[in-house]
Write a sequence for this structure.
């Protein structure tokens, strides 16, 4: 692990603060009506943040972009078990996270999070972004993935190969046997040394790909650049989707399905998301942590979409790990069913 | 621990099946329009169940009463840690569980669950029922608690003293510093020996009360009777509340608040409920486990009720552990604010 620059915390903080600003500006601009309301808060045990929430916008029914900078005496067991060198050390963490719940069911829900940790002798970057459509189109999925791949590739071409698979594995609802959506990228515990994959699923495809690629070296500055590139890939990866879908008409059927699928989003965040669990474990700010939950969600016992319906293709194609670019069968299936673009 | 009767599993199964029948009949009767749809299912690893769901009834927007009988090779760690003698043994479990989501916000959401486990040399009963009002009245709360207290007292007068406190501690949302509602009773790992409280919170009031009462002995038959009495206490503890509240008019304000508070119900079930986590861990039937989730729920960042409003009194009084019967201040506060009856 290389040494971080002497002002690493300040740099990381500025990075995520800038991301929050840039993203909020871009979102307000595309929304045209909704405005983010900001709230600053302090954390009793150390640190604080600024939460920004948009409600009842033109495009966004609800959306939050959070920034936080927190520190404490000892990291919780869930993190120390992954980073034993951090044990017994004071820690520092800063990050920005975002979830947007658009009103129009043709516009996907989307999440982003970039964060930086230091604890005694160790430091690491983590982050990612993933897209959760209700009525997906392959072209939208590709736009989002393309921008994130390019952002990773600018730092090193091997990164995306692992981070794409890691995302599919992380945003997975075991109890539903579904991915949360079409994925994107996800990475954690990146300190520039060892293998790229540092997650818990040693048997998974991300671990295998990482092993195949061998040891990988990045400097602190490389990983800073990675977070910056990926964070800046969000708007070009998402805004074109909004532009394409925002005027697509929908009715009760689409709205009902959207609310039903938002239930899955709640299930993932409360049952499986380590970020959420970390927040609740470390006495985090509940309102900011649960800002990711949708304004309205629905559950229906035993719901199953009719085979061949547009709702059916969501789970048949888009909540499974896929190669979005080079799979001809997938592309043809999307074309045949009018969900290509 | 006394020995169970030779046909303990059959008896326990019949008990919970009968409870399911009685409760469904009572609920259909008060609803008048809604009918339970039954679905039988089998579990790959052993066992199965019958799920009954009512949707869009007159009183009940959604409700489920589930029965299951399941068995397997080894209990999951979360249970073995509480019952080490069960380690390495095949297990059997049968139970009934219910959650009702009424449409009218003046009628509380309610949950019930009674279950029986065997694993090698050990057996135990568990269960309980708890009430989650949106616009609570002290009289409703008392009706529910009175019936459950009487049901416990018929077996032994010390039981309710512990089980009421245990309920307050179990149905607690740490991240909100709120109980789920006004409580009721909860017990687990009851094998008729040792102290009554066998939960994890050794520092809590239930543990203290249990210690104060000393060792407590019940036969298998006593605990069978306890489950039967408590299960049968549900209808007389809940139906009078429905009757009192079903014609109380409400508007958008009350509906919005109900949906918002249902969000808390989702949070509890997915983040804190061991039953739900057990089900998802043991590859349970997801649709039946998550039958407890509401048909519609809402989240709103930073919501705070206006001081002195009816919404305010929910969290000011009714989501804190309380002595519902003998607290004069509480009674007066409810009378002054027109939430006594």
């Amino acid at each position: 692990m290389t040494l971080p620059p002497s002002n690493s915390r300040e740099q990381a903080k500025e990075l995520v603060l800038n991301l929050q600003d840039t993203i909020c500006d871009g979102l307000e601009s595309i929304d045209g009506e909704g405005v983010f309301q900001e709230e600053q808060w302090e954390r009793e045990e150390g640190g604080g943040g600024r939460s920004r929430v948009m409600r009842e916008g033109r495009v966004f029914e609800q959306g939050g972009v959070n920034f936080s900078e927190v520190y404490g005496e000892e990291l919780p067991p869930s993190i120390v078990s992954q980073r034993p060198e951090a044990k017994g050390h004071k820690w520092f963490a800063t990050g920005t996270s975002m979830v947007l719940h658009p009103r129009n069911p043709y516009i996907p829900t989307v999440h982003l999070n970039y964060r930086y940790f230091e604890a005694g002798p160790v430091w690491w970057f983590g982050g990612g972004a993933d897209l959760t459509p209700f009525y997906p189109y392959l072209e939208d999925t590709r736009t989002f993935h393309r921008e994130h791949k390019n952002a990773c590739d600018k730092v090193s071409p091997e990164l995306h190969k692992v981070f794409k698979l890691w995302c599919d594995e992380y945003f997975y609802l075991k109890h539903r046997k579904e991915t949360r959506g079409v994925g994107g990228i996800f990475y954690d515990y990146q300190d520039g040394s060892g293998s790229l994959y540092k997650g818990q699923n040693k048997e998974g495809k991300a671990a295998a790909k990482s092993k195949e690629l061998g040891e990988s070296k990045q400097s602190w500055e490389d990983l800073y650049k990675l977070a910056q590139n990926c964070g800046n890939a969000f708007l070009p990866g998402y805004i074109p989707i909004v532009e394409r879908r925002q005027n697509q008409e929908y009715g009760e059927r689409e709205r009902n399905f959207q609310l039903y699928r938002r239930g899955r989003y709640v299930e993932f965040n409360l049952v499986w998301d380590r970020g959420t669990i970390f927040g609740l474990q470390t006495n985090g700010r509940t309102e900011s942590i649960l800002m990711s939950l949708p304004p309205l969600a629905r559950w229906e016992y035993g719901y199953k979409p009719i085979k061949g319906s547009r709702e059916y293709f969501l789970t048949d194609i888009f909540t499974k790990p896929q190669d979005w670019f080079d799979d001809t069968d997938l592309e043809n299936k999307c074309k045949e069913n009018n969900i290509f673009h």
About this structure: Chain B is about 40% helix and 25% strand. The interface with chain A takes residues 39, 51, 53, 55, 62, 64, 174-176, 259, 263, 266-267, 270-271, 280, 286-287, 289-291, 293-302 of chain B (CB under 8 Å). The mean pLDDT of chain B is 95.
